[in-house]
Design brief:
Number of strands: 0
Largest sheet: none
Strand content: under 5%
Mean pLDDT: 64
Order of helices and strands: HH
């Protein structure tokens, strides 16, 4: 497969469910008056780790 986009695969159903659960948790925290910065940080940190792993494999 040759493509112009970044290496991207469709998320697995289990990942989609986990993401939906994370979003629901974040929404619950926001309704309690607490924006959930750690959810965003965790997502960003995970993405950075994956990028670093992918770079290391090449």
């Amino acid at each position: 497969m040759s493509g112009t986009g970044p290496r991207r695969r469709p998320p697995l159903p289990s990942e989609v469910r986990k993401e939906e659960a994370d979003v629901a948790t974040a929404r619950e925290e926001e309704t309690e008056g607490m924006p959930a910065p750690r959810k965003k940080m965790r997502a960003d940190g995970r993405a950075e780790e994956e990028e670093a792993q992918l770079r290391g494999r090449r």
